[in-house]
Amino acid sequence: MEYFRKKSVKELVEQSTPLRRSMRTLDLTLLGIGAIIGTGIFVLTGKGALTAGPALSVSFVLAAVCCGFAGLCYAEFASMAPVSGSAYTYSYIAFGELVAFVIGWDLILEYALQAATVSAGWSGYFTKLLQGFGIDLPVQLTAAYGTTPGVTTYFNLPGFVVVLLITWLLSVGINQTRRANDIMVGVKLAVIVLFIVCVVWYVKPSNWQPFSPYGWYSFKQNSTVPMGIIPAASIVFFSFIGFDAVSSSAEETIEPRKTLPRGILLSLAVSTVLYIVMTLIMTGVVKYPEFSAFIDAPVAGVIVKTGMNWLALIVDFGALIGMTTVMLVQLYGQSRICYSMSRDGLFPKFFGEIHPKYRTPVKGTWFFGILTAIAGGFININVLFELVNIGTLSAFIIVAAGIIWMRHKHPEMQRGFKTPGVPFTPLIAIVFCGVLIAGLNWQTWVRFAVWFVLGLAVYFLYGARHSTMNKPSESAITAH
Which residues cross the membrane (predicted)? Predict the structure, then answer.
Protein backbone atom coordinates (compact mmCIF):
# COMPACT_ATOMS: atom_id res chain seq x y z
CA MET A 1 0.00 0.00 0.00
CA GLU A 2 1.41 3.40 -1.02
CA TYR A 3 1.22 5.79 1.94
CA PHE A 4 2.59 8.80 0.06
CA ARG A 5 0.25 8.67 -2.96
CA LYS A 6 -0.77 12.12 -4.15
CA LYS A 7 -3.78 13.79 -5.71
CA SER A 8 -3.75 16.23 -8.60
CA VAL A 9 -5.42 19.63 -8.44
CA LYS A 10 -7.63 18.60 -11.37
CA GLU A 11 -8.79 15.51 -9.51
CA LEU A 12 -9.51 17.45 -6.31
CA VAL A 13 -11.58 20.02 -8.20
CA GLU A 14 -13.54 17.30 -10.01
CA GLN A 15 -14.27 15.48 -6.75
CA SER A 16 -15.37 18.61 -4.89
CA THR A 17 -19.02 18.84 -3.92
CA PRO A 18 -20.70 22.05 -5.12
CA LEU A 19 -21.34 23.89 -1.87
CA ARG A 20 -23.15 27.21 -2.04
CA ARG A 21 -20.79 29.87 -3.44
CA SER A 22 -21.53 33.32 -2.03
CA MET A 23 -18.36 34.70 -0.40
CA ARG A 24 -16.36 37.57 -1.92
CA THR A 25 -13.12 39.35 -0.97
CA LEU A 26 -14.76 41.54 1.68
CA ASP A 27 -16.50 38.54 3.24
CA LEU A 28 -13.22 36.59 3.35
CA THR A 29 -11.33 39.54 4.82
CA LEU A 30 -13.95 39.92 7.54
CA LEU A 31 -13.90 36.16 8.08
CA GLY A 32 -10.14 36.35 8.66
CA ILE A 33 -10.42 39.39 10.94
CA GLY A 34 -13.22 37.61 12.78
CA ALA A 35 -10.89 34.68 13.46
CA ILE A 36 -7.79 36.71 14.32
CA ILE A 37 -8.98 39.62 16.47
CA GLY A 38 -10.55 38.48 19.70
CA THR A 39 -8.70 36.55 22.38
CA GLY A 40 -5.39 38.16 21.43
CA ILE A 41 -6.54 41.66 22.36
CA PHE A 42 -9.04 40.94 25.10
CA VAL A 43 -7.18 38.18 26.99
CA LEU A 44 -3.59 37.42 25.92
CA THR A 45 -2.28 41.00 26.06
CA GLY A 46 -2.20 40.71 29.85
CA LYS A 47 0.05 37.64 29.97
CA GLY A 48 2.03 38.98 27.03
CA ALA A 49 2.77 42.28 28.80
CA LEU A 50 4.02 40.43 31.88
CA THR A 51 6.27 38.28 29.68
CA ALA A 52 7.80 40.97 27.43
CA GLY A 53 6.90 44.33 28.97
CA PRO A 54 6.14 47.18 26.52
CA ALA A 55 8.13 45.22 23.93
CA LEU A 56 4.99 43.10 23.56
CA SER A 57 4.32 45.19 20.45
CA VAL A 58 7.56 43.76 18.99
CA SER A 59 6.35 40.26 19.91
CA PHE A 60 3.17 40.88 17.94
CA VAL A 61 5.26 42.09 14.99
CA LEU A 62 7.42 38.93 15.19
CA ALA A 63 4.33 36.69 15.27
CA ALA A 64 2.75 38.71 12.45
CA VAL A 65 5.86 38.42 10.27
CA CYS A 66 5.84 34.67 10.80
CA CYS A 67 2.16 34.52 9.82
CA GLY A 68 2.74 36.94 6.94
CA PHE A 69 5.36 34.74 5.28
CA ALA A 70 3.18 31.68 5.91
CA GLY A 71 0.16 33.61 4.60
CA LEU A 72 1.94 34.24 1.29
CA CYS A 73 2.45 30.49 0.95
CA TYR A 74 -1.18 29.79 1.83
CA ALA A 75 -2.26 32.36 -0.75
CA GLU A 76 -0.40 30.58 -3.56
CA PHE A 77 -1.80 27.18 -2.61
CA ALA A 78 -5.31 28.66 -2.31
CA SER A 79 -5.06 30.11 -5.82
CA MET A 80 -3.62 26.86 -7.17
CA ALA A 81 -6.04 24.45 -5.46
CA PRO A 82 -9.35 26.25 -4.80
CA VAL A 83 -10.97 23.44 -2.81
CA SER A 84 -11.83 22.92 0.85
CA GLY A 85 -9.31 21.49 3.25
CA SER A 86 -6.67 24.20 3.78
CA ALA A 87 -3.23 22.78 4.71
CA TYR A 88 -4.63 19.23 4.60
CA THR A 89 -5.48 19.52 0.90
CA TYR A 90 -2.23 21.32 0.09
CA SER A 91 -0.21 18.55 1.77
CA TYR A 92 -2.14 15.92 -0.22
CA ILE A 93 -1.00 17.61 -3.43
CA ALA A 94 2.63 18.16 -2.43
CA PHE A 95 3.64 15.35 -0.08
CA GLY A 96 1.02 12.63 -0.26
CA GLU A 97 -1.67 10.99 1.81
CA LEU A 98 0.11 10.17 5.07
CA VAL A 99 1.46 13.69 5.53
CA ALA A 100 -1.94 15.10 4.55
CA PHE A 101 -3.71 12.98 7.15
CA VAL A 102 -1.28 14.00 9.89
CA ILE A 103 -1.78 17.69 9.06
CA GLY A 104 -5.56 17.25 8.91
CA TRP A 105 -5.48 15.50 12.27
CA ASP A 106 -3.31 18.34 13.54
CA LEU A 107 -5.77 20.99 12.29
CA ILE A 108 -8.73 19.27 13.94
CA LEU A 109 -6.92 19.57 17.26
CA GLU A 110 -5.99 23.20 16.53
CA TYR A 111 -9.51 24.34 15.69
CA ALA A 112 -11.26 22.38 18.45
CA LEU A 113 -8.90 23.45 21.24
CA GLN A 114 -8.89 27.07 20.16
CA ALA A 115 -12.68 27.26 20.04
CA ALA A 116 -12.94 25.52 23.42
CA THR A 117 -10.28 27.77 24.96
CA VAL A 118 -11.95 30.91 23.65
CA SER A 119 -15.30 29.71 25.06
CA ALA A 120 -13.71 29.88 28.53
CA GLY A 121 -12.70 33.52 27.99
CA TRP A 122 -16.11 34.28 26.47
CA SER A 123 -17.79 32.93 29.60
CA GLY A 124 -15.76 35.24 31.82
CA TYR A 125 -16.70 38.37 29.88
CA PHE A 126 -20.34 37.25 29.63
CA THR A 127 -20.52 36.78 33.40
CA LYS A 128 -19.08 40.26 33.97
CA LEU A 129 -21.52 41.78 31.49
CA LEU A 130 -24.47 40.20 33.30
CA GLN A 131 -23.14 41.47 36.62
CA GLY A 132 -23.24 44.96 35.16
CA PHE A 133 -27.00 44.51 34.84
CA GLY A 134 -27.32 43.08 38.35
CA ILE A 135 -27.57 39.44 37.24
CA ASP A 136 -25.35 36.88 38.97
CA LEU A 137 -24.95 33.35 37.62
CA PRO A 138 -24.10 30.60 40.12
CA VAL A 139 -20.32 30.70 40.32
CA GLN A 140 -20.19 26.89 40.05
CA LEU A 141 -21.57 27.15 36.48
CA THR A 142 -19.25 29.86 35.18
CA ALA A 143 -16.06 27.86 34.57
CA ALA A 144 -14.70 24.34 34.21
CA TYR A 145 -13.58 22.44 37.31
CA GLY A 146 -10.38 23.76 38.83
CA THR A 147 -10.08 26.73 36.48
CA THR A 148 -9.90 29.42 39.20
CA PRO A 149 -7.75 28.74 42.30
CA GLY A 150 -9.70 29.13 45.54
CA VAL A 151 -13.08 29.10 43.77
CA THR A 152 -15.23 25.99 43.40
CA THR A 153 -16.44 25.63 39.81
CA TYR A 154 -17.77 22.59 37.94
CA PHE A 155 -19.12 23.55 34.53
CA ASN A 156 -18.74 26.39 32.02
CA LEU A 157 -22.43 26.76 31.14
CA PRO A 158 -22.22 30.03 29.12
CA GLY A 159 -19.31 28.68 27.05
CA PHE A 160 -21.13 25.39 26.45
CA VAL A 161 -24.28 27.14 25.25
CA VAL A 162 -22.54 29.64 22.95
CA VAL A 163 -20.61 26.86 21.17
CA LEU A 164 -23.86 24.99 20.52
CA LEU A 165 -25.51 28.18 19.20
CA ILE A 166 -22.59 28.79 16.82
CA THR A 167 -22.74 25.16 15.70
CA TRP A 168 -26.43 25.60 14.87
CA LEU A 169 -25.66 28.75 12.87
CA LEU A 170 -22.95 26.93 10.89
CA SER A 171 -25.25 24.02 10.18
CA VAL A 172 -28.07 26.07 8.61
CA GLY A 173 -26.00 27.58 5.81
CA ILE A 174 -23.01 29.66 4.73
CA ASN A 175 -25.15 32.71 3.86
CA GLN A 176 -26.43 32.96 7.44
CA THR A 177 -22.92 32.40 8.77
CA ARG A 178 -21.43 35.03 6.44
CA ARG A 179 -24.01 37.69 7.34
CA ALA A 180 -23.68 37.06 11.07
CA ASN A 181 -19.88 37.20 10.90
CA ASP A 182 -19.86 40.40 8.82
CA ILE A 183 -22.12 42.16 11.32
CA MET A 184 -20.20 40.97 14.39
CA VAL A 185 -16.81 41.92 12.93
CA GLY A 186 -18.15 45.39 12.12
CA VAL A 187 -19.29 45.83 15.73
CA LYS A 188 -16.00 44.48 17.08
CA LEU A 189 -13.90 46.85 14.98
CA ALA A 190 -16.08 49.79 16.02
CA VAL A 191 -15.55 48.97 19.71
CA ILE A 192 -11.78 48.66 19.24
CA VAL A 193 -11.59 52.00 17.42
CA LEU A 194 -13.69 53.60 20.20
CA PHE A 195 -11.27 52.22 22.80
CA ILE A 196 -8.25 53.58 20.90
CA VAL A 197 -9.77 57.05 20.42
CA CYS A 198 -10.84 57.35 24.07
CA VAL A 199 -7.82 55.82 25.83
CA VAL A 200 -4.87 57.11 23.76
CA TRP A 201 -4.99 60.42 25.68
CA TYR A 202 -4.05 58.61 28.91
CA VAL A 203 -0.76 57.21 27.57
CA LYS A 204 2.33 58.08 29.61
CA PRO A 205 5.57 57.49 27.66
CA SER A 206 7.37 56.88 30.95
CA ASN A 207 5.42 53.61 31.29
CA TRP A 208 7.29 52.32 28.25
CA GLN A 209 10.59 52.41 30.19
CA PRO A 210 12.30 50.01 30.22
CA PHE A 211 10.88 49.05 26.85
CA SER A 212 12.28 45.50 26.84
CA PRO A 213 12.96 44.54 30.48
CA TYR A 214 13.67 40.84 29.68
CA GLY A 215 15.39 41.18 26.30
CA TRP A 216 14.78 38.66 23.56
CA TYR A 217 14.92 35.54 25.73
CA SER A 218 15.79 35.14 29.41
CA PHE A 219 14.70 33.62 32.71
CA LYS A 220 13.72 35.28 35.95
CA GLN A 221 15.80 34.38 38.98
CA ASN A 222 14.77 30.98 40.42
CA SER A 223 12.28 30.45 37.60
CA THR A 224 12.12 28.02 34.67
CA VAL A 225 9.50 30.06 32.80
CA PRO A 226 11.06 31.83 29.77
CA MET A 227 10.60 35.59 29.52
CA GLY A 228 11.22 38.13 26.79
CA ILE A 229 10.14 39.04 23.28
CA ILE A 230 10.41 35.55 21.74
CA PRO A 231 8.48 33.69 24.50
CA ALA A 232 5.81 36.42 24.36
CA ALA A 233 5.64 36.00 20.58
CA SER A 234 5.10 32.27 21.11
CA ILE A 235 2.18 33.15 23.40
CA VAL A 236 0.52 35.84 21.27
CA PHE A 237 0.96 33.74 18.12
CA PHE A 238 -2.32 32.22 19.34
CA SER A 239 -3.86 35.59 18.47
CA PHE A 240 -3.16 35.19 14.75
CA ILE A 241 -4.43 31.65 14.38
CA GLY A 242 -7.46 31.68 12.13
CA PHE A 243 -6.39 33.26 8.87
CA ASP A 244 -5.62 29.76 7.61
CA ALA A 245 -9.29 28.86 8.15
CA VAL A 246 -10.12 31.35 5.38
CA SER A 247 -8.62 28.94 2.86
CA SER A 248 -11.10 26.28 4.02
CA SER A 249 -13.90 28.30 2.40
CA ALA A 250 -12.63 27.72 -1.15
CA GLU A 251 -15.70 25.79 -2.31
CA GLU A 252 -18.04 28.48 -0.97
CA THR A 253 -16.13 31.39 -2.51
CA ILE A 254 -16.78 33.26 -5.74
CA GLU A 255 -13.63 33.29 -7.94
CA PRO A 256 -11.51 31.61 -5.23
CA ARG A 257 -8.23 31.87 -7.20
CA LYS A 258 -8.38 35.66 -6.80
CA THR A 259 -10.47 36.29 -3.70
CA LEU A 260 -8.80 33.76 -1.35
CA PRO A 261 -5.28 35.28 -1.52
CA ARG A 262 -6.72 38.77 -1.10
CA GLY A 263 -8.83 37.77 1.90
CA ILE A 264 -5.93 35.99 3.63
CA LEU A 265 -3.40 38.82 3.22
CA LEU A 266 -5.80 41.72 3.90
CA SER A 267 -7.11 40.17 7.11
CA LEU A 268 -3.55 39.66 8.35
CA ALA A 269 -2.54 43.24 7.52
CA VAL A 270 -5.52 44.89 9.24
CA SER A 271 -5.25 42.69 12.32
CA THR A 272 -1.51 43.31 12.75
CA VAL A 273 -1.92 47.09 12.70
CA LEU A 274 -4.69 46.94 15.32
CA TYR A 275 -2.67 44.62 17.58
CA ILE A 276 0.37 46.91 17.53
CA VAL A 277 -1.66 50.04 18.23
CA MET A 278 -3.63 48.38 21.04
CA THR A 279 -0.56 46.97 22.83
CA LEU A 280 1.34 50.26 22.69
CA ILE A 281 -1.65 52.12 24.14
CA MET A 282 -2.31 49.54 26.86
CA THR A 283 1.30 49.36 28.06
CA GLY A 284 1.47 53.14 27.84
CA VAL A 285 -1.50 53.58 30.16
CA VAL A 286 -0.62 50.82 32.64
CA LYS A 287 2.90 49.92 33.79
CA TYR A 288 3.54 46.35 32.62
CA PRO A 289 3.96 44.70 36.10
CA GLU A 290 0.49 45.95 37.05
CA PHE A 291 -1.17 43.67 34.47
CA SER A 292 -0.85 40.82 37.00
CA ALA A 293 -3.85 42.30 38.83
CA PHE A 294 -6.16 41.85 35.84
CA ILE A 295 -4.41 39.29 33.66
CA ASP A 296 -7.69 37.65 32.57
CA ALA A 297 -9.29 40.93 31.45
CA PRO A 298 -6.44 43.33 30.57
CA VAL A 299 -8.51 45.71 28.43
CA ALA A 300 -11.05 46.15 31.23
CA GLY A 301 -8.19 46.80 33.66
CA VAL A 302 -6.80 49.54 31.44
CA ILE A 303 -10.22 51.19 31.29
CA VAL A 304 -10.52 51.13 35.08
CA LYS A 305 -7.12 52.87 35.23
CA THR A 306 -8.48 55.71 33.10
CA GLY A 307 -11.63 56.09 35.20
CA MET A 308 -13.93 55.83 32.16
CA ASN A 309 -16.22 53.21 33.68
CA TRP A 310 -18.91 53.89 31.07
CA LEU A 311 -16.54 52.48 28.45
CA ALA A 312 -16.13 49.19 30.35
CA LEU A 313 -19.64 47.98 29.51
CA ILE A 314 -19.15 48.71 25.81
CA VAL A 315 -15.77 46.96 25.73
CA ASP A 316 -17.18 43.91 27.54
CA PHE A 317 -19.81 43.68 24.81
CA GLY A 318 -17.15 44.12 22.12
CA ALA A 319 -15.04 41.38 23.72
CA LEU A 320 -17.99 39.00 23.61
CA ILE A 321 -18.59 39.76 19.95
CA GLY A 322 -14.88 39.45 19.19
CA MET A 323 -14.51 36.04 20.78
CA THR A 324 -17.77 34.84 19.23
CA THR A 325 -16.41 35.45 15.74
CA VAL A 326 -13.19 33.59 16.64
CA MET A 327 -15.17 30.53 17.70
CA LEU A 328 -17.39 30.78 14.65
CA VAL A 329 -14.49 30.75 12.18
CA GLN A 330 -12.62 27.98 14.03
CA LEU A 331 -15.65 25.69 14.14
CA TYR A 332 -16.31 26.51 10.49
CA GLY A 333 -12.76 25.59 9.50
CA GLN A 334 -12.87 22.40 11.54
CA SER A 335 -16.08 21.19 9.91
CA ARG A 336 -14.62 21.82 6.43
CA ILE A 337 -11.40 19.95 7.22
CA CYS A 338 -13.39 16.94 8.43
CA TYR A 339 -15.63 17.21 5.37
CA SER A 340 -12.61 17.08 3.06
CA MET A 341 -11.02 14.15 4.89
CA SER A 342 -14.32 12.25 4.82
CA ARG A 343 -14.69 12.86 1.09
CA ASP A 344 -11.23 11.35 0.60
CA GLY A 345 -12.21 8.27 2.62
CA LEU A 346 -9.80 9.00 5.49
CA PHE A 347 -12.71 9.67 7.85
CA PRO A 348 -16.11 7.90 7.87
CA LYS A 349 -18.65 9.11 5.29
CA PHE A 350 -20.78 10.43 8.16
CA PHE A 351 -18.61 13.56 8.37
CA GLY A 352 -18.95 14.39 4.69
CA GLU A 353 -22.70 14.05 4.16
CA ILE A 354 -24.17 17.28 2.74
CA HIS A 355 -27.63 18.40 3.83
CA PRO A 356 -29.85 18.70 0.71
CA LYS A 357 -31.39 22.00 1.85
CA TYR A 358 -28.60 23.84 3.68
CA ARG A 359 -25.75 22.52 1.49
CA THR A 360 -23.53 22.12 4.58
CA PRO A 361 -21.94 19.05 6.25
CA VAL A 362 -24.52 19.14 9.04
CA LYS A 363 -23.69 15.86 10.80
CA GLY A 364 -19.96 16.49 10.96
CA THR A 365 -20.56 20.08 12.07
CA TRP A 366 -22.75 18.97 14.97
CA PHE A 367 -20.49 16.07 15.95
CA PHE A 368 -17.43 18.23 16.49
CA GLY A 369 -19.48 21.18 17.73
CA ILE A 370 -20.85 19.07 20.58
CA LEU A 371 -17.40 17.66 21.41
CA THR A 372 -15.96 21.19 21.49
CA ALA A 373 -18.81 22.41 23.70
CA ILE A 374 -18.21 19.55 26.13
CA ALA A 375 -14.45 20.22 26.18
CA GLY A 376 -15.00 23.91 26.90
CA GLY A 377 -17.65 23.12 29.49
CA PHE A 378 -15.89 20.51 31.57
CA ILE A 379 -12.14 20.59 30.92
CA ASN A 380 -9.69 23.14 32.25
CA ILE A 381 -7.91 23.74 28.95
CA ASN A 382 -6.35 27.13 29.66
CA VAL A 383 -2.94 25.45 29.87
CA LEU A 384 -3.38 23.82 26.46
CA PHE A 385 -3.42 26.88 24.21
CA GLU A 386 0.29 26.34 23.54
CA LEU A 387 -0.68 22.96 22.07
CA VAL A 388 -2.80 24.88 19.57
CA ASN A 389 0.24 26.98 18.71
CA ILE A 390 2.61 24.07 18.09
CA GLY A 391 0.00 22.36 15.91
CA THR A 392 -0.53 25.47 13.82
CA LEU A 393 3.18 26.21 13.48
CA SER A 394 3.73 22.65 12.27
CA ALA A 395 1.04 23.12 9.61
CA PHE A 396 2.66 26.39 8.52
CA ILE A 397 6.03 24.65 8.10
CA ILE A 398 4.48 21.94 5.92
CA VAL A 399 2.67 24.48 3.72
CA ALA A 400 5.82 26.58 3.27
CA ALA A 401 7.86 23.50 2.38
CA GLY A 402 5.08 22.49 -0.01
CA ILE A 403 5.48 25.71 -2.00
CA ILE A 404 9.19 25.02 -2.55
CA TRP A 405 8.44 21.43 -3.58
CA MET A 406 5.61 22.35 -5.97
CA ARG A 407 7.63 25.12 -7.65
CA HIS A 408 10.41 22.61 -8.26
CA LYS A 409 8.31 19.62 -9.34
CA HIS A 410 5.29 21.28 -10.98
CA PRO A 411 6.23 24.78 -12.22
CA GLU A 412 3.68 24.42 -15.05
CA MET A 413 0.62 24.43 -12.76
CA GLN A 414 -1.76 27.41 -12.97
CA ARG A 415 -1.33 29.86 -10.10
CA GLY A 416 -3.62 32.86 -9.66
CA PHE A 417 -1.15 34.21 -7.06
CA LYS A 418 2.56 33.50 -6.75
CA THR A 419 4.47 33.74 -3.49
CA PRO A 420 7.25 36.29 -4.09
CA GLY A 421 10.88 35.43 -3.45
CA VAL A 422 10.64 31.63 -3.64
CA PRO A 423 12.48 29.75 -2.16
CA PHE A 424 13.58 32.44 0.32
CA THR A 425 10.10 33.50 1.48
CA PRO A 426 9.00 29.93 2.39
CA LEU A 427 12.38 29.30 4.03
CA ILE A 428 11.99 32.44 6.16
CA ALA A 429 8.50 31.25 7.15
CA ILE A 430 9.97 27.89 8.21
CA VAL A 431 12.72 29.57 10.26
CA PHE A 432 10.29 31.92 12.02
CA CYS A 433 7.95 29.04 12.83
CA GLY A 434 10.89 27.05 14.19
CA VAL A 435 11.93 29.95 16.43
CA LEU A 436 8.40 30.26 17.86
CA ILE A 437 8.17 26.50 18.43
CA ALA A 438 11.45 26.70 20.34
CA GLY A 439 9.81 29.21 22.68
CA LEU A 440 7.23 26.63 23.85
CA ASN A 441 7.74 24.48 26.94
CA TRP A 442 8.60 20.75 26.90
CA GLN A 443 5.16 19.69 28.21
CA THR A 444 3.66 21.04 25.01
CA TRP A 445 6.00 18.87 22.95
CA VAL A 446 4.97 15.78 24.91
CA ARG A 447 1.24 16.44 24.48
CA PHE A 448 1.71 17.08 20.78
CA ALA A 449 3.66 13.83 20.39
CA VAL A 450 0.83 11.87 22.05
CA TRP A 451 -1.74 13.40 19.68
CA PHE A 452 0.57 12.69 16.72
CA VAL A 453 0.91 9.00 17.63
CA LEU A 454 -2.84 8.69 18.13
CA GLY A 455 -3.37 10.16 14.66
CA LEU A 456 -0.99 7.66 13.10
CA ALA A 457 -2.97 4.85 14.72
CA VAL A 458 -6.23 6.17 13.26
CA TYR A 459 -4.67 6.45 9.80
CA PHE A 460 -3.16 2.96 9.67
CA LEU A 461 -6.19 1.28 11.25
CA TYR A 462 -8.86 3.12 9.24
CA GLY A 463 -7.77 5.86 6.84
CA ALA A 464 -5.28 3.91 4.74
CA ARG A 465 -7.78 1.08 4.24
CA HIS A 466 -10.75 3.25 3.26
CA SER A 467 -8.97 5.92 1.23
CA THR A 468 -10.52 6.68 -2.15
CA MET A 469 -6.98 6.48 -3.50
CA ASN A 470 -7.24 2.70 -3.19
CA LYS A 471 -9.29 2.81 -6.38
CA PRO A 472 -7.09 2.39 -9.47
CA SER A 473 -5.98 5.32 -11.63
CA GLU A 474 -7.37 8.05 -9.45
CA SER A 475 -4.33 10.25 -9.14
CA ALA A 476 -2.82 12.27 -11.92
CA ILE A 477 0.31 12.99 -9.91
CA THR A 478 2.25 9.96 -8.74
CA ALA A 479 4.51 9.87 -5.74
CA HIS A 480 7.95 11.23 -6.40
Answer: 28-50, 56-75, 87-108, 154-173, 185-203, 223-243, 264-288, 308-333, 364-381, 387-405, 417-438, 444-462
**Distance of alpha carbon 166 from alpha carbon 186, whole angstroms:** 18
User: pLDDT in tens for each of the 480 residues of the chain?
Assistant: 578 888 777 777 666 655 566 677 888 888 788 778 877 787 788 888 988 999 999 999 988 888 888 888 888 887 777 776 678 888 888 888 999 899 888 888 878 888 888 887 788 778 878 887 788 888 887 777 666 666 777 788 998 999 999 999 888 866 666 677 778 888 888 988 999 999 999 999 999 999 999 888 887 766 677 789 988 888 887 777 777 767 666 666 777 777 877 888 888 888 889 999 999 999 999 999 988 887 767 888 888 888 888 888 888 888 888 888 888 878 887 887 888 888 888 988 888 787 777 677 888 889 989 988 998 888 766 566 667 778 888 888 998 999 999 898 888 888 877 888 889 999 999 988 888 787 777 777 888 888 889 999 999 999 889 988 886 544 444 434
Instruction: Give, as one character, the DSSP assignment of residue 226.
Output: E
Residue 479 domain-assigned?
no
- In a domain, residue 340? The reply is no
For 13, 46, 79, 135, the CA distances from 302, given in Å and listed in that order, are 50, 10, 42, 24
d(CA 166, CA 170): 6
CA distances from 54 to 165, 401, 439 (A): 38, 34, 19
Are 71 and 243 contacting, i.e. CB atoms less than 8 angstroms apart? yes
Domain ranges, residue 121: 9-333+373-470
| Residue 227, helix vs strand vs coil | strand
Residue 187 lies in a domain: yes
Which residues, 6 or more positions from 127, have their beta carbon under 8 angstroms from its beta carbon?
Answer: 137, 142, 158
Please report, for the domain that includes residue 277, its CATH number.
Answer: 1.20.1740.10
**How far from the centroid of its chain's Cα atoms is residue 437's Cα?**
16
